[in-house]
Design a protein that fits this description.
One of its GO terms (molecular function) is kinase activity. This is Diacylglycerol kinase family protein. Keywords: ATP-binding, Kinase, Lipid biosynthesis, Lipid metabolism, Nucleotide-binding, Phospholipid biosynthesis, Phospholipid metabolism, Transferase. Its cofactor is Mg(2+). By secondary structure, the protein is of the alpha+beta class. It folds into two domains: 134 residues, Probable inorganic polyphosphate/atp-NAD kinase, domain 1 (Rossmann fold); 166 residues, Tumour Suppressor Smad4 (Sandwich). Helix content is 31%, strand content 34%. It contains ten helices and 14 strands. Strands 5, 6, 7, 8, 9, 10, 11, 12, 13 and 14 form a ten-stranded antiparallel beta sheet that branches. Helix 2 packs parallel to helix 3 and helix 6 packs across helix 8. The longest helix has 13 residues. The relative contact order is 0.16. It binds adenosine-5'-triphosphate. The site of adenosine-5'-triphosphate (ATP) has 21 residues, from helix 3.
């Protein structure tokens, strides 16, 4: 089936004019009508724009931007029958990496305008009983959120993922905090420096934090790092940054469908790589297969190969 109605939700600070021109040109060549072109703003990373696209009745929304833009568009399309395509234009590009999508505009457009797609899970998250939000990759508190918060935007532009390593160094002084986590009714208590919920396993730098986690397996993964000695901390931090878990790490990973994180005090949390705010109780439920996403079989094969390595 060839879609003819398409919207582009683009962050103009991430997708430059050349990129935008290429998108328009490739859409025209592929026989699409003039797209509904919606730019994000400093105040709205794409919520109202995605809603407008859905209400306009488009069949496909191409999201072009960094992780924040991609997350908000994915959240807005989850549960609808509108397909999403990704043009990764940030530093982390976490969802694109996890789906094995091309990270350049031309390659991403090949997939966006192809007919191959898959359904992936999204995660409904409620923080302190507020309005539910969604993420597609991960939600985290502790050092993880601190790293995301400390990453300097200018530095990110300049040295890319290396900026996360520098931010991780800054976060080293953090103390573990008592946390109670529940996964499908089973409760565990730890003094943790990182507590995160993953829908996908791969974070930045092409390394896997939660090996085996797949965005379409209908499961969430709860990752808790609870080092008790400085040497453990250092290892846990190193693993967080290098994303290479080992047996002797003070790390546990549980999987399930419903996850609760109860902190003693409010702490910053991040969603798909962007710090969203502070919260004490995070409740997450997986919504299996809730998002239609353009991804080619070839890229899936590459992804599967990478997972086996
Ligand atoms: N039109 C705009 N003008 C200025 N700032 C904008 C505009 N649209 C979005 N932004 C800002 O861009 C940021 C979101 O960027 P986006 O999520 O696309 O990339 P990112 O999260 O920085 O990506 P990454 O972390 O992968 O580098 C938000 O801070 C938002 O306020």
């Amino acid at each position: 089936m060839i879609e003819t109605r398409c919207a582009v939700v683009a962050n103009p600070t991430k997708l430059d004019e050349r990129g935008a021109e290429l998108v328009r040109q490739r859409l025209a060549e592929a026989g699409y009508a003039e797209p509904l072109w919606l730019e994000t703003s400093a105040d709205d990373p794409g919520r109202a724009m995605t809603k407008e696209a859905v209400e306009a009745g488009v069949d496909l929304v191409i999201a072009a931007g960094g992780d924040g833009t991609i997350r908000v568009v994915a959240a807005g399309l989850a549960g609808t029958d509108v397909a999403m395509a990704i043009i990764p234009a940030g530093t982390g590009n976490l969802l694109a990496r996890n789906l094995g999508l091309p990270l350049d505009v031309a390659g991403a457009l090949d997939v966006a305008l192809g007919s191959d797609e898959r359904r992936i899970d999204t995660v409904v998250l409620t923080v302190d009983g507020g309005e539910p939000d969604r993420f597609a990759v991960m939600a985290g508190t502790g050092i993880d959120a601190m790293i995301m918060d400390n990453v300097d935007d200018r530095l990110k532009k300049f040295i890319g993922p290396g900026a996360y390593f520098i931010a991780a160094g800054k976060a080293l002084g953090r103390l573990p905090v008592p946390v109670r986590v529940t996964i499908d009714g089973h409760t565990h208590k730890r003094k943790a420096i990182i507590t995160l919920i993953g829908n996908c396993g791969e974070l930045t730098g092409n390394l896997k934090l939660i090996p085996g986690a797949q965005p379409d397996d209908g499961l969430l993964y709860l990752y808790v790092a609870f080092p008790s000695r400085p040497s453990h901390w250092f290892k846990a931090l190193l693993r967080l940054v290098t994303r290479r878990p080992r047996k002797d790490d003070h790390v546990r990973v549980w999987s399930g469908r419903h996850v609760e994180i109860h902190l003693q005090e409010k702490d910053a949390y991040e969603l798909d790589g962007d710090v969203e705010g502070e919260g004490r109780v995070l409740v997450a439920d997986v919504d299996p297969g809730s998002l239609r996403i353009r991804a080619s079989a070839a890229h899936r094969a590459v992804e599967a190969g990478a997972n086996n390595s």
